[in-house]
Design brief:
Layout (H helix, E strand, L loop, with lengths): L1 H58 L4 H36 L28 H4 L1 E2 L14 E2 L8
Antiparallel strand pairs: 1-2
Helix pairs in contact: 1-2
Amino acid sequence: MNQVRDREKKRRQYLRRLGEAYISAAIAGALFVPTLLITIASVIATISCAVLFVFHLCMRDGSADYWLSFLMPFGGSAFVVGLFTCALWSALKYAKREVSIPYVPPVTASTLPAEDILVRGADEPPTAHGEVLVRAARHGQETPKEELLRVRPGESRD
């Protein structure tokens, strides 16, 4: 019987781990695409500001400082959101690995070994069936012994 409890415990652990893996995969998947797009936009903005900064620096018209003020926030946001995107990518890979955990079947009579399944009445000898008497359910009235039904060996008691 202890083996059945262990199998039930393993099944609960399997279902809990599988549920956690699916939830983390759903959250990471839902956040990954928007953060990836924000990262790409931030990188493009950073590159654009860097090109304009270098261009205006070479032109020496004094507006290079203007583009430098945009370069730092876009570069910082590209870095921070890029790190977050990498973390989400790692979470997706981890969730994929967690979803591939070995299957643990549910505990049912068909999956249990024969020694763990209880069969009622299996220890009752076949001669005892003939001694079992069946009485009609009548309130306050006793059924005479001649009217009692007996099960004969070889007949079913359905």
